[in-house]
Amino acid sequence: MNIETSSIGVLVIVLTMALVTLATRWGGVYVMSFVPISFRVKQFIHAMSGSVLVAIIAPMAVEGDHGARLALVSTAVVMLLIKRPLLAIASGILAAGLSRAFW
Q1: Section 9-13 average pLDDT
Q2: Integer Cα distance of 2 and 33 in angstroms
Q3: Whole-model pTM?
């Protein structure tokens, strides 16, 4: 299937992706409205957030360039020292940008 990407095709692609994103987010909230939040469900939700984070970061740490690895290290160090997520993310972005600009 080919979609023309020079005119209205781009708008169709973006709108389709937005609808799919909304459907998955709203669908998850709808399904979870039927699940009683017990201690085990809370444990599952907390474990899932950590596993998703590892699934995103691990490939970057293994196959990423120097900028990606420096961003990971910078973010981890700032988070451990300052414990402010926004500052940690900003330091990672800055480290990656500077590394890629000058290395």
Answers
A1: 86
A2: 38
A3: 0.58
